[in-house]
Amino acid sequence: MPEIDARSGYCKSNSTFYSRRRSVPLPANEILDVTTFISARAHHGTTAYIDASTGQRLTFSDVWRSVESVSSALSDFGIRKGDVVLLLSPNSIFFPIVCLSVMSLGAIITTTNPLNTKGEINKQIADSKPVMAFTTSDLVPKLADSNLPIVLIGSDADSKLTAKFVSTLDLMMRKEPNPNRIKERVTQDDTATLLYSSGTTGASKGVISSHRNLIAMVQTVIGRFQLEDDEEQQTFLCTVPMFHIYGLVAFATGLIASGATVVVLSKFEIHEMLSAIGLYGVTYLPLVPPILVALVNNAEQIRAKYDLRSLKSVLCGGAPLSKESTEGFMEKYPGVTIMQGYGLTESTGIGASTDTAEESRRYGTAGKLSSNMEARIVDPETGKALPVNRTGELWLKGPTVMKGYFSNPEATASTLDSTGWLRTGDLCYIDEDGFIFVVDRLKELIKYKGYQVPPAELEALLLTHPEIDDCAVIPFPDKDVGQFPMAYVVRKNGSNLTEKGVMDFVSKQVAPYKRIRRVAFIGSVPKNPSGKILRKDLIQLATSKL
């Protein structure tokens, strides 16, 4: 048995870090789909989903009855194992019903962002080749060129049925399940979801996740929150998009296995979010860092106007929180624990987390390795695995790591090695207590005269400036030095901060090669739904004038 350090989880003999969290049990039976796995779990919950704006509720028995009916209706439409079904919808209490029904047949769910353009959606359709789409009447125009049979979601759907609209979700949910329908054997290795990664550093790719990946994710989520041991009913507010791995993992699949209630916001709006906490007794609030910062900056007005007494924890993912944000939140909302998480679409949203207030005080950390996960820190230059407190690319291995990228063997080979290690593309180190710290995206490092400059380091420094609200740092091409750091800065209201003021502020505090040599002021920094900066958009903006 290899010797593993009790604090860090590091094993010298194979240069691997092992999770120090309690491992979660995974089912051994191969013939098992994630929907059956979730529905078979016994729990004491009553209300599964609540629509935040209308108050409409679905009990757990409503959900499972609907899943059975919709699965049966899809089977009657000829949907079979391996078929891809597209879901284009804002957050809704019906989103999980579509996902669970499709996956129960061994068919594959692919989701897309309702804000995507028709062109972007057509690209995903051309790549994933769905045989049917679920969408709302508002979003039908975005599927106009697809010729896909469409199932309409929403109360106004029944009046709109035409040849192209083959049914409505409401009709499907009311259908008597066919007891004689063909039930195909679905194994844990079969594909369950085809989610398109955010593409913050390049073209979006279809991530293939198996039923095994999702089952392991469900077990990890339940283990993390220890919901099954909790006699009190816990209520989560779904503030993040369900089409995204963060939303799909927790709210459309993970939490329904635990008996917790999920309150669904159809779109994010901060006042609606804050009102819903008091209205529905929300105990867990998932956020991305910019929203947490807004809660800190406006704490006095928020606490005077909204009832937040039920709130026990905020769950923050997407990017590490600064010390200022963490301390500021703990000071302004003293009864509320911050829990952070790190994961990728490629790891089914699982990777690392802080699970207590004490762990979150390890400022800047993404947390400790999740249950059943292993990690390596690999020197990008030499490929050598590194020990504690050394920075390199984080590699992950475990039961939630994807099968690969859809129809893209080159991208799969460059991301997954032959033994199942996932190259995350994140530069990290793991400290002597097993906490992971994300330094930057490997592909986003700025190469200045051969020196490597991490944008996140400069961004953290800029955010300490009293007149800067938000910022992003990108590589700007230069024929003499290769690239130099350029900053996009959002000034605070009333600020007259100049380009020189920004550059001088940074140059006093960093080595010469890290200095910012160009500044542009901007109204807001473009970010994806999980709060990550869309650097490629800013690089395009900066270089379009060259």
Attribute tags:
5-stranded parallel sheet, 546 residues, Rossmann fold, alpha/beta, GMP Synthetase, Chain A, domain 3, nucleotide-binding, single chain, ATP binding, 12-stranded mixed sheet, 3 domains
Short description:
It contains 16 helices and 29 strands.
What does this protein structure show overall?
There is one protein chain. It is built from 16 helices and 29 strands. Strands 1, 2, 14, 15, 16, 17, 18, 19, 20, 21, 23 and 24 form a twelve-stranded mixed beta sheet that branches. The protein has a five-stranded parallel beta sheet with strand order 6-5-7-8-9, sandwiched between helices. A four-stranded mixed beta sheet has the order 4-3-13-12. β16 and β17 (351-353) form a beta hairpin. α2 (60-76) packs across α3 (95-104) and α6 (211-225) crosses α7 (245-254). The longest helix has 17 residues, at 60-76. The protein is globular. This is 4-coumarate--CoA ligase. Residues 457-532 form the AMP-binding enzyme C-terminal domain. Residues 39-406 form the AMP-dependent synthetase/ligase domain.
Report helical residue fraction.
25-40%
CATH T-level fold name of the largest domain: Rossmann fold
The CATH first-level class of the largest domain comes to Alpha Beta
How many angstroms separate the termini? 59 Å
Largest sheet: 12 strands, mixed
Helix and strand topology:
Elements: E1 10-11, E2 16-18, H1 34-39, E3 47-51, E4 57-59, H2 60-76, E5 84-88, H3 95-104, E6 108-112, H4 118-128, E7 132-136, E8 150-153, E9 165-168, H5 169-174, E10 191-196, E11 206-210, H6 211-225, E12 235-238, H7 245-254, E13 261-264, H8 270-280, E14 284-287, H9 289-297, H10 299-305, E15 313-316, H11 323-332, E16 337-343, E17 351-353, H12 357-360, E18 365-369, E19 374-378, E20 385-386, E21 392-397, E22 404-405, H13 409-415, E23 422-430, E24 435-441, E25 446-448, E26 451-453, H14 455-462, E27 468-478, E28 482-491, H15 499-507, E29 518-521, H16 535-543
Parallel strand pairs: 3-13, 5-6, 5-7, 7-8, 8-9, 12-13, 14-15, 15-16, 28-29
Antiparallel strand pairs: 1-2, 2-19, 3-4, 10-11, 11-22, 16-17, 17-18, 18-24, 19-20, 19-21, 21-23, 23-24, 25-26, 27-28
Domain AMP-dependent synthetase/ligase: 39-406
GO cellular component, one term: peroxisome
Domain AMP-binding enzyme C-terminal: 457-532
